Amino acid sequence: MLNFRIETTSGLAPYVQVVQQVKQALRLGWLQPGDKLPTVHEVASTVAINPNTVQKAYRELELEGLVVGRPGQGTFVARSLSQSTPEALTALGRRLERWIAAARAAGLDDDGIMDVVRATMRNLRTEASA
Amino acid sequence: MNAPAVEAVEAGHRYGDFWALRGCTLSLPSGSVTAVVGPNGAGKTTLLNLLVGLLPASEGRLRVMGDQPSSRPEFLAQVGFVAQDCPLYREFSVADLLRFGRAMNPRWDDALARQRLAAAEVPLDRRAGRLSGGQRAQVALALALAKRPQVLLLDEPLAALDPLARREFLKTLMNSASEAGITVVLSSHLIGELARVCDHLVVIRDGQVRLVGELDQLLAEHRWVAGPPEDTARMPSGVEVLSTSSHERHNTLLVRSQGPLLNPALTVSPVDLEELVLAYLERPAPHLSPPLGTHEGARP
Q1: Which 3 state secondary structure label does DSSP give B59?
Q2: Calpha distance B280→B275 (Å, rounded)
Q3: CB neighbours of B101 closer than 8 A, spacing ≥ 6?
Q4: Axis-axis angle for helices B110-119, B163-180 (nearest 10)
Q5: CB-CB: which of A14, A41, A123 is closest to B178?
Q6: pLDDT, tens digit, for every residue of B59-98?
């Protein structure tokens, strides 16, 4: 069963965390089309999280067409999110390793590197939405 | 979630000339889980006691499942209440408490209570006075749920529990919330665990509701904004600034706004529940009532 982890200090609403964790599982191939998600009741009682939160997350995933709810049976994965092939991911990882090495050589520590990544992605998003 | 399960309109309670709660207006949908937070003495217990009918409203209107809270058996049958420190008859065994509950409550679900206590590994022959804090909380919760209430009110249920017992308690609570669809209102001055279990929030201080709403919406509307003073000084209309801290070359603001903030000079980051609660607790009261106990007597 998919094991949800809720971090209360991340600043992300718990339902968003559930949505993201399902998507991550879909991207990484841990969840495949046809797989059943744990029921709202199962998640609420094992993770100690609000059932309305789980329901809201599942509803959002359903609206995005990623899962489908079948009354009386549960919620099932409708499509995969694997974005790439394992070979492509490996190649991207290699290029990232080279970039990280360059960043360290320039004197950045891990936090500094993450700041640059976040700021760059934020800037790209801002440009896209402007 | 449809009709409100819990409603208050300008409700208050006065002890002599001290208002423990005043002007309390809120509406909590059926099936919701609400956290009532605030410092000790803020009015949390007063609010819960008003909702369960232990205290009369000195002013305003209260409704729980459409009913005015009172000591009538038909009202009390709908409401489960776990008071602060989970008071239980110390000399009674857990099995005695179950028998007592069955005798007192027409809709008592003994099988459900026994099942919950077994799941929480609480020995039925143990006297209540010899239970651990976590077990006592589980017993009080099992007893309150065995009534099959539609609304469950809990006053500081987590305060005396260690982190493990707290997590187990919340699992039981969320299990029953998802199974029976009951409406839950719990007060707490511990904020950490609440974000995962609550969908509505009430912040109280000095007898006043400072913030009330759906948690996800409140978190989405509030943001930290950091940037150079000239950019943080002029916020677009519709953006409410809740707090400002000034530094040498940048300011950090906590703002509330419905729409996005598009100024690229500003760094926007999300707010977590604890930061949100603290911001509203630290703010001066929006409309200050006269100093307590001085002008009240002069009012008509």
Answers
A1: strand
A2: 9
A3: B108, B113, B143, B146, B147
A4: 150
A5: A41
A6: 999 999 999 999 888 898 899 999 887 778 888 999 999 9
Return left, alpha or beta for A29; rule: phi > 0 is left, psi -120 to 50 is alpha, else beta.
left
Tell me if B165 sits within 8 A of B122, measured CB to CB: no
B269 contacts in A (CB within 8 Å)? 11
Angle at the Cα of B264 from the Cα atoms of B260 and B267, rounded to 5 degrees: 75
Give B195's contacts in chain A (Cβ within 8 Å). 6, 8, 14
CB–CB of B178 and A123 under 8 A?
A: no
A70 Cβ partners below 8 Å, 6+ apart?
A76
> Which among A4, A6, A7, A8 is the top mutation candidate for probing chain B, defined by the most B β-carbons within 10 Å of its own β-carbon?
A8
CB-nearest partner of B216 from A11, A13, A44: A13
Query: Residue A17: closest CA among chain B residues belongs to which residue?
Result: B196
Q: Could you say which DSSP state residue A69 is in?
A: E
Contact (Cβ atoms closer than 8 angstroms) between residue A31 and residue A22: yes
Determine if the pTM surpasses 0.90: no
Count of all residues that appear for chain B in the document: 300
Task: Measure B212 CA to nearest chain A CA, in Å.
Answer: 17
